[in-house]
Each structure stands twice: as C-alpha cells, then as structure tokens.
Amino acid sequence: MLLDTQTNLVLDQKINQFFDPESKEIYKESIQKTVDYIIDFLDNDTFYSGESSDNLRSKIDLIKANPQIKLSIDEALQEIKELYLEHTISFHHPTYVAHLNCPVLIPAIVGDIMATSVNTAIETWDQSTSATLIEQEMIRWICSEIGLPDVSDGVFTSGGTQSNFMALLMARDHYAFHHFGLNLKENGWSDVVSKFRFFCSEKAHFSIKKNAALLGMGYNAVIPVAVDSQMKMQSEALVQAIEKEKQLGNIPVAIVATAGTTDFGSFDPLDTISKIAKEYDIWFHVDGAYGGSYVLTETHQSQLKGIEKADSVTIDFHKTMFQPVCSSAFLVKDTNFFKYVSYYADYLNPLEHRDVECPNLIEKSIQTTRRFDALKLWFTLKMTGAKTIGSFLEKVHYLALDLYHSIKDDIYFEMIHKPELSTLVFRYKAPGIDRDSIHDTINLYIKNTLFKSGQASIASTKFDGKIYLKFTLLNPKSTIDNLLEIINMIKETGRNYTTHN
C-alpha cells in the first residue's frame, strides 16, 4: 500500500472538508456559522477599530499556519474575528469616504458565493458551458448600454489596470500591423515601436504610464495633455501635442480619454476627442473605470456622448455598480481585435476545434484561469435592475453636489472644483495662516488623525503641489447629515492642531 494506516485515518477525518455530495451538511453548517460572524461584523460602530499597526503585527501568531494544530470551524472563525473582522475597513460605513470602494449589493454577494462554491473556471467551454453564455450576455448588455456596434465584444477582467493594459497593447499592435505590416505578437519587438506615442490627460489614471512601461515602451511613450479648470483634457492642447510629437519624428498611435478621473470625476470631451482620433487615424480608448457605469443614468448622458465611438472601453462594475471585487470588463467595438491577445494551445483550445457555438473565452483574455465574476452582475441585474442601479448613481452624484454647496462658502475650506461625479476635493484652511506648507501639514494631520482614531476615513491628493482632502461618495444610503458630521470632525481636528501647535 502506498499509504499507511495512520495516514489513511487522518485523511478519513478530513476528507469531508471537500465541497461534494458527502459534505452537504458540513458545507451548510460552515456557511451559516460564517454568516453569523459576518452579521456581527456589520454591528461594528466605526469604519475601523483604530487598532495601531504595531498591535496588529503583535497578532502574528494568529496569522501563521501551525501544521501541528488543526482548528475547528468555530475556533478558526473566532481567530479570524479577532484578527480580521474586528479591524478590517467597513466600506459600507457612512464615515468611510476615502477611495473607490463601494458598498456591495446582496444579490451580488449571492452570485459571488455561488461562483466561489461551484468554482467554475470560465476560460474554456468544457469547463464552464452555460457560464460562458452568461458572461457573454453580460458583455452584450453593457456594450448595448454604451452604444457600441453589434460586432462589439468584451471580456471580464481583474480591474481597470488590466483593461487599460489590454487597450494599449491592442492599440500598439493594431497600428503596427495596419501601418507597417508588423505582427508583434508573432515576431516581437521592432525598432519603429519605440517611436509610438499614447496621449492622455495629465489627470488620467496612473495605469496608463504603468502599462506603457510593462509593454516595454516606457513612461515616456505616454504624452500627458493639459487640462482646463474643470480638469478635462483640452482638445486644442491634444492636437498641439500630437503635432509636436510628429515633428519630433514620433508616431501617435492612440488617445486615452477618461470618463471620470479618479480625483475629480472629470469627463474628458469624448465626442471631440473621438473626432480627433478619427482624423489622425489612431486608436480611441475610453477609460470609464469610474464614470462608465453612469451610462445607466439620465444625468450624465451628455458627458458620455462619444463613448459609443471608442475602439475600446474600460468599465469597473466593482467601483460603481456595487459589485464585490473583482468585477470589471474590457470592451472593444470589433470582436476581431481580440486576435491581438489570442493564443491556441493544443491541450486547452486548439484552433482546429474552434466552435463559435461553444466558444472558449480564453481567446479574449490575457488570463488563463479566471473566476466566473459575471455571475454576481447577472444576479444584480435580475434582482435589482439597471434602472435602480442608475438611480443609486444619481443619488451619490447629487449628494456630492449637496456637500459642495453646503461648504463652498465656509471660511474653513477651499474648494477647487464642482463635482461632476461623486468626488469632492477641498482642503481645510486655518484662518490667519497663509503658508501652504502649514496647510499641507494640517490637512495630513486631519486625515491621519481621523483614520487612526476610527472616526472617519478620507483620502488625500495633491493639486498644484498642495495637499488636499478628498471625499469619494459611493454609498447611496449616506445622507448629507452623515457627510456634515465628517466635515465637523475635520474642523474640530484642524482647530485642535492649530491651537496646540
């Protein structure tokens, strides 16, 4: 026998930990006990316990796996409660307004639990069957909402950074093939590619530069374009930047427009930029990771005009469609563009077995193994509905406007923009102090003090080299009173600092 009696005994005791017909009662009991602990987590009074990083590190013995000790479900849940649930960040809490982390919908959680338990791998038909059809339908739905043509297509991704990576890769390879006859996927690098240039707003997401570097083209392949007072890309400056690069002997290949910048929620003039891209015969990508979901609203149709002309679009459902991470998509106006990322492996998706009726989604993805993330969006659309999601987005937009109007004339605050989405950037200004360096110190103190105390989580950013605070509003259950409570905390903390320093 390959296994001795003692080993077999241990295996028999643990074998029912697998998800299968023999463990149905164990699965049910374990999930129910876990749900009870999660419900207790919802009773946390603050967005964060305020536990210091040193104290959290002192719990390292709970983090480490001890091969000599096997815990029961009750013991493991108690440990994770002490280590994680009591101290993790509560994105649903009304005093959490820091980043693009949305509260999640219960239908989405149902889909996530189901996808995780069944553990469908979505890359090939013989691993996913109808799950493939569900993902394709979710892609068809969002392409239709955006207004992309019937030949459009897409794939779920890990997030905006991955989607933007695919956009730059396709833009580069498409231009190389159609203008120089180069097959970069097949033959690799060519010297002419070093002259390729991407253009984006100076307020665009950092992933544009990061991805250019990962593609081997370097940060300098990305040309930042000036913005106006509303933080939108200036179309005149874009044309000037393109012409300047051409005069330098470089080759414009793509424009990345942003629909909802991370800091300001600004929309670049998509329609105008689409015409510029067409005039220069270059790729037009829209990074709508934040603002793309606002196609479901009535309030932002004008800002999104032109997105339907994009060659590719990034959209993050886990930012503004109330989905658990990860739930994002990369969309293209023509499904044939996926040839730039496709590969056919004999053991997985051989070309000779390609079947449009039973497609292998790996042909569209830079990932191989991939979760069935579309299922949670399916549950959301079926149970909540797109119109309701749109109303949630309109709610947080109007909430940002209400906050802006509530504090814009307050002598303790300096505003730099009127919200176009659901972010507000401002800073606390102590009366009688003129030095920006002091205001920088005070604003960072406010942010850090409120976080460490567990009172509120707000973000910070820089504008013109100065430190500002930022509210990112994604919770439609928040009220203006919730936000004004945080504003009062900011004032009190700022006054305490100036009094004692």
In what range is the share of β-strand residues? 5-15%
In N-to-C order, the SSE pattern is: HHHHHHHHEHHEHEHEHEEHEHHEEHEEH
Biggest sheet character: 7 strands, mixed
How much helix is in the residues?
A: 40-55%
Distance between the termini: 76 Å
Mean pLDDT: 94
What best-fitting shape do the alpha-carbon axes yield? globular
- Could you tell me the radius of gyration in angstroms? 25 Å
Question: What is the topology, as strand order, of the major beta sheet?
Answer: 1-7-6-5-4-2-3
> What is the level-2 CATH architecture name of the largest domain?
3-Layer(aba) Sandwich
Total separate domains: 2
How many separate helices? Answer: 18
CATH topology of the largest domain: Aspartate Aminotransferase, domain 2
Structural class: alpha/beta
Number of strands: 11
CATH classification, class level of the largest domain: Alpha Beta
